Amino acid sequence: MGNIVTTIKRFLSNKNTVTILGVLLGVVVLYVFYNYRVNQAVDTVMVPYATQEITATTEITQESISSVEVLRSFVSSHTNLITDTAALVNTTNPQCVTYGTSVPQGAFFYTEQVVTCSALPNDAFSNMPDGYAPFSMSVDIHSTYGNSMYPGDYIDLYVKMTSRDGRIIFGKLIESIEILDVRDSQGNSVFLTSEAATPSELLFAVPTYDAHEEIDLHWLLNIATYISGLELIPVPRNASYTTNPGETSVSSYYLINEIETYAAQIPDINVGGSTTTNNNTTTNEDSGTTE
Asked: What is the value of pTM for the model shown?
């Protein structure tokens, strides 16, 4: 046993032996690393693609997609690329191509192009909450910043007008209001197809009465559209403004007062003898009238 240990010590103490072992170890490391990089470079993954053009709001079906091998390195560099076919074809939760885009034949699918079909109602007002009413605002390609406002976006509405004493007034009237649809002059949704269309109106659903602000937003916006020289201006915000929307509300009492000076509020007569307006309630009694 002692002779074997002595032999090994002498073998390892030889400089030539150590050099040879070092070279061999380096070759092994390089070989392993090289094979690892080669395997990484040629490793593939199956990725679904469109076998035909799929236009906006169209459901993605098994017949409209197929799969192809793609280098994993390509997939890693495109983090929003959809690689799971089940994320596109789901019988219990159908997926559609979202507004304002299409998937060309032979193209891959990306997460921002796909949305649950149930999120694309055919009727813009079918899911309008109770206590809300529709409002349509005229726009054009310029006021929508090159048709860059989409259904589901939350934006602000600004007012530009001239006061009775000739001053220019510009300010934010309503904040965090959701666009329900963008339509052309024929009443068609401009993002339902991949063909270019010119926006003519934005559709909103606005509260008929804001208890906190004590104002009828639907009444206020409609009155604004009848004031000569007043312009409602849609102003888009960033993505987080839509992702985390605030409550739709008025932003300036000064602007409200300016608009109200051009209109007379008509009280509503309710059953029971109460008379209500947008900002106050009057109760009629036998003995007299109390305000």
From this structure: 0.58
Cβ proximity of 203 and 181 under 8 Å: yes
Domain identity same for 109 and 152: no
Q: Say if residue 155 is in the same domain as residue 253.
A: yes
Q: In degrees rounded to 5, what are phi and psi of residue 74? A: -65, -45
Total tally of structural domains belonging to the chain: 3
Q: Given pLDDT bands bounded at 50, 70 and 90, which one contains residue 139? A: very high
Q: 94 and 1 in one domain? A: no
Identify whether the C-beta of residue 59 lies closer than 8 Å to the C-beta of residue 103: no
240-287 pLDDT tens trace: 999 999 888 888 989 999 998 888 767 666 545 444 454 443 333 333
pLDDT value of residue 173? 94
Q: Which stretches of 163-287 are assigned E, i.e. beta strand?
A: 168-183, 201-207, 231-236, 249-250, 268-269, 274-276, 281-285
The number of C-alpha atoms within 13 Å of 258 and in the hemisphere containing its C-beta is 24
Q: Which of 119, 153, 176 is the last residue of a domain?
A: 119
Range of the domain at 105: 44-119
Band of pLDDT at residue 230, cut at 50, 70 and 90: very high
**Do 18 and 99 have their domain in common?**
no
Do 59 and 7 share a domain, yes or no? Answer: no
Q: Give dist(CA 90, CA 103) in Å, integer.
A: 18
Beta carbons within 8 Å of 137's beta carbon, 6+ residues apart: 157, 201, 202, 204, 221, 225, 232, 234
Q: Are residues 190 and 248 in the same domain?
A: yes
| Tokens, residue 198 | 């010119």
